[in-house]
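User: hey, got a sec? need Crp/Fnr family transcriptional regulator folded
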Amino acid sequence: MLFHFKDQFPQLKPFLDKYLEFLKRLEVPTKTVLLEEGKVSQNYIYIEKGCVRAFFNNNGEAKTVQFFFENEGLTSFESFINNSPSLLTIETIEPSVVYLLPKKYVTELVKELVNEPEFTQLILQVSAGRQMHYMNEFFSFIRDTPEQRYQNLLNNRPHIIQRVPQHYIASYLGVTTVHLSRIKRKIAKGKSHF
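Assistant: Yep! Here you go:
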């Protein structure tokens, strides 16, 4: 679960190393579904190489919620914790190398770590960071135009623009691919005046 934090919290390494043997390594092509909407999440996913998107079905149209890249971990948390159907599908959008840690071992690892002060600090940091990210996304959808949201991606997360196919970016911004093309032309035209 927390293997990507080993460098940040070396004190946790002995605990994490015990669970390395239970990680299942997968080399998968583009469009591999790692978790299907409506199914219960049974694994924590760690991305060694590649890109993954989380999306949900809105009346037959896929709405992208988030992108994940190398050295990031994810699952459908509400499904994973509560054994409830996932609200999201998790799918690769590049050929990827991922590791899956089954829920049973995640639970055992957390039980071992729960009394470690560094672990509590780590969980609080990760939770606060994700909460802040999702709040910013939520506010941006209410406050900003699609053009402003695209400009924010360009400024703050250019790797998304460079690696993610345009139709997924359009879905993420809540616009059509045609509208996204217009936005890109407008921004490019604005830059050419300087």
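Quick note: The mean pLDDT is 88. Let me know if you need anything else on Crp/Fnr family transcriptional regulator.
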